[in-house]
Amino acid sequence: MTVTALTPRANLSGLRWFFLVAGIAILVALPVLSIFWLALFPEENIWPHLLDTVLWHYVSTTLLLAFGVAVLTLVAGVGSAWLVSMCRFPARRFFEWALLLPFAVPAYVIAYVYTDLLEYAGPVQKALRGWFGWQSARDYWFPEIRSLGGAVAMLSLVFYPYVYMLARAAFLEQCGSIRAASRSLGCSPWQSFLRVSLPMARPAIAVGLSLVLMETLNDFGTVDFFAVRTLSVGIYDTWLSRGNLGGAAQIACSTLLFVVLLIALERIGRARRRHFVQSPTANRDRYRLAGWRSLAAVFFCGILLLGGFVIPLVVLAGYALGNLSGYWTDAFVEIARNSLLLSAVAALLSVLLGLLLAYGKRLQPRRPVRLLVGFSKLGYALPGAVMAIGVLIPLAGFDNAVDALLREHFGISVGLLLSGSVFAIIFSYTVRFLAVSTGAIETSLEKVTPSMDRAARALGRNSWQTLWAVHLPLVRAGLLTGGLVVFVDCMKELPATLLLRPFGFDTLATYVYQFAADEMLERSALGALLIVLVGLIPVVLLSRAIGWRRGDGVAELIESEAPAI
Question: Integer distance in angstroms from the first to the last C-alpha of the chain?
């Protein structure tokens, strides 16, 4: 075997790509490092006060919320995935893709809709009082929607698709002969599910659950509207209400402890997936449900679809179309334009940086480069409120340094150049969702045979020319997928936008939040409806992927969002 030594030119090119990947990783690391720096060296240390007063309440509430959402999303996601993958019942093919639709609805939007429907003055309780002759709330009991339980229900309705997608992909990959063997040994369908299918799918389910819990930690609109004091709300209150950025950073560090645990769970689940047997001919035989079992399956899947998508869409459409001319104003058009432009710029930047990271990893697949690329995906694991603090600190430091320098030498003040502008929002979006675009592009690059690179080098092309002429045309699908998912995620992002936006600047997310918080759902309905309709884009992509023979497209697309480090 002949070993070909690398030329000095190739070594220099590899070194350049290493420093490029390292530079992007350092850029992404700035928010995290800034949070730890400010938490350790705050201007006013209120950590003892936080420990004695509110911190443990924030932590306990966050744990209860996460536990409740985890239980409900596991039941909903795994149960619906098993039914549509392994059973035959009416409307199964419809539910197969329709169960993804709640993925398009932001959690805070569904919270506003159900509060409007279920509160004491809402149409549901009004109808109940009219039917039964009740006069006041003392005459009957009705669950309080603005509570911890209400927040658990709202988040579960829109987050269960994470578990559903990965669980269904895992069930589709399982070898059908294994289930047949379990049945021949006397297992009922339920026993076969518990003893065979569920343990085999457990790693994929763990990945989906970790994504659900990260989104739960990130949520601000729902828990703030329901007065549920989680760590995310604690960051917001400590920063803006108490005026203490250092204390907010200290709470943010507490949030990062949860993130580290979730990433560890995700890594364990992903690493164990290779141990399981798969077969491309799996699942041709499904359990046929009849009678009450068939009705129960339709009811279970229908409730998830109805509660997570149909009811919110109908309510929002009714409010928005009821007074479209009054809500579609020049101010609203400008707000919608702000959202579209910010999301588009952030999506383009994240795709560009993701392409550089993925291609650098392909050219230099050594451990340091792999670690740097993995570290650059950490931003997705940071809740939006935490990311906002991490972004503000270095940008404000840069602004202050530039302003001091210009004051000293030229006698002029430029104020806040970056931290007080839309640049801070775009930077936050790009860092937070870089993992999504990088994962999608990595998946596409892995399908390009290495012989294409060798052929390009043999024809005298350098790495940049090979990227432009060979790889870009081949990974266009990954670029488009990653960019679209990032675009939609940016449109829905609320906590970071709310904390970083300049004075008088709004996006659709902040517009909806402000009106809904003031009990004016009708005014916010058009903005919320637009967010939901834009959110249907990745659902269409996932619906197409879920129809592939083994569901690999679903697993690849959703796993591209996981912060694999």
Answer: 35
* Three-class SS state of 87: strand
- Predicted TM-score of the model (pTM): 0.83
Residues 6+ positions from 551 with CB-CB distance below 8 Å? 168, 169, 172, 173, 545
Q: Which pLDDT score is estimated for 1?
A: 37
Q: How confident is the model at residue 14 (pLDDT cuts 50, 70, 90)?
A: low
The Cα-based distances of 430 to 24, 101, 435, 534 in angstroms read: 11, 25, 9, 19
Residue 278, strand partner residues: 174
Residues 6+ apart with CB under 8 A from 333: none
Q: What are the structure tokens assigned to 215, written together?
A: 């989104």
pLDDT in tens, 102-143: 988 999 999 999 999 999 888 999 998 989 888 888 888 888
Look at the block and give the residue holding tokens 């203490």. Answer: 244
* CA–CA gap between residue 262 and residue 247 (Å, rounded): 24
C-alpha–C-alpha distance, residues 27 and 455, integer Å: 34
SS3 287: strand
Return the structure tokens found at 388: 């906002």
Cβ atoms of 78 and 168 closer than 8 Å: no
Distances (CA, A) of 185 to 143, 147, 364, 438: 46, 47, 50, 45
* CA pair distance 491, 499, nearest whole angstrom: 15
The answer to whether residues 524 and 481 touch, using CB atoms and an 8 Å cutoff, is: no
Burial 504-519 (b: 16+ CB within 10 A, else e): ebbbbbbbbbebbeee
Identity of the residue numbered 529? L
How far apart CA 308 and CA 104 sit, in angstroms, is: 9
Structure tokens at 523: 């005014």
The first and second tokens of residue 55, run together, are 């911190």
pLDDT-derived band of residue 272, with 50, 70 and 90 as boundaries? low
Average pLDDT (58-72) is 94
Is 550's pLDDT higher than 50?
A: no
Q: Please name which of 504, 481, 499 lies closest in space to residue 428, comparing C-alpha atoms.
A: 499
pLDDT tens per residue, range 340-376: 999 999 999 999 999 999 888 888 878 888 888 888 8
Expressed in percent and rounded to 5, the helix, strand and coil fractions of the chain are 80, 0, 20
Give the Å distances, CA to CA, from 333 to 74, 373, 421, 533. 39, 38, 20, 16
